[in-house]
C-alpha cells in the first residue's frame, strides 16, 4: 500500500489509506537553489517555510515513517511536556546526555531543528510543533496496537488481568478469586483509573468502588457491601470509640483528592451532611498511603471502607465504624460482550458466590 508519493512539485498523490498518512509517514524533500541561497523545506506538502537552513541537512531523498524511532518520538513528546531536558530524562529513566543525543539524531534524520534549546523553558520550533501532534498519534496507535495483541494473547491462554484499588476486593472479592478457575494476575490501579483501565484493555476486569458514572461499553455488577469507617489519628478524641455517628465528624477537616471526581469525593465524605453543616476539606491526597500519613499527622480525617483496616494496620491510626451511614459497595467492572473466556468464567464465579 502506498502511503503517499512525492513528486517534483512537492505535492502528494491522494491517499486512500484507512489511517491518515500523516500518522504513519513523514516525507521530507529538500531542494537547494544556488541562485538566492535559500533553502526550501516541504513538510507533508507544506509551502516553503524558512530562509534559515536547518542545523542538519539531508540529501534529496524521501525519509519514510518506518525510518523513525518510537523511542525518539517519545523523547520529543516528554521534552515538550516538561520543557526541560533534566526532568524529561528522569521521566524516561535515561541520562540527560542520552536524551539530548536522541533528539539530535531525530533532527539530523529529518533535517530540521525541533527544539529551541536556548529558551527557558525549552520550546518547540515550527517544525517541532508540526511533528509533535503527529508523533503523539503514532505513539497512541502503537500503544493501542500492543494492547490489542496482548489482550488477544490473554484470551487465547484464558489468562486474566484483574485490577483493584486499595482493598477493593474485600472479603467477597477474595472468595471470588479463590473460586475462580481461570489463571489470573492482580494489577493495582489508581483511584482515577478504575473504569478507564478496563475500557483501554489495560486489565480485563476490575473490582471497583462506586459511585462511578455510566460509561459506554462497560458493565458494572454488584459483588457485595461493607460498612464505612472513620480514619482517625490515634490520639483523636473519638479514636477509642466502638462506633460513632456521622455528626461526630461535622467539625473535622476532611482529606480531599484531585485524582477523583467530585461525586466520588463527596459521597465518601458524606457531603452534604444530614445536619446541613458544610464539610471542610483540607490537604489533598492521591493515594491511600498519602491519606494515612495526612491522618496520622493530625492534619485531617477521612472515611473509607472497613476492609482497609485489614490491609493497613498501623499503631498511629484508628479505624472507627460509623453507625448511621449507608455501606459502600464493591462492584465488578468488565467490558460488555468481551469474548475473553476468563471474563465469562469470572462473571459466572461472581454469580455463584452471590447465590444463596
TrEMBL record:
Superkingdom per UniProt: Bacteria
Keyword set, alphabetical order: Activator, DNA-binding, Transcription, Transcription regulation
Residue ranges annotated for the HTH lysR-type domain, each copy included: 68-125
SUPFAM superfamilies, alphabetized: Periplasmic binding protein-like II (SSF53850), Winged helix' DNA-binding domain (SSF46785)
Keyword Cytoplasm: no
Family as reported in the entry's similarity comment: Belongs to the LysR transcriptional regulatory family.
Protein name: LysR family transcriptional regulator
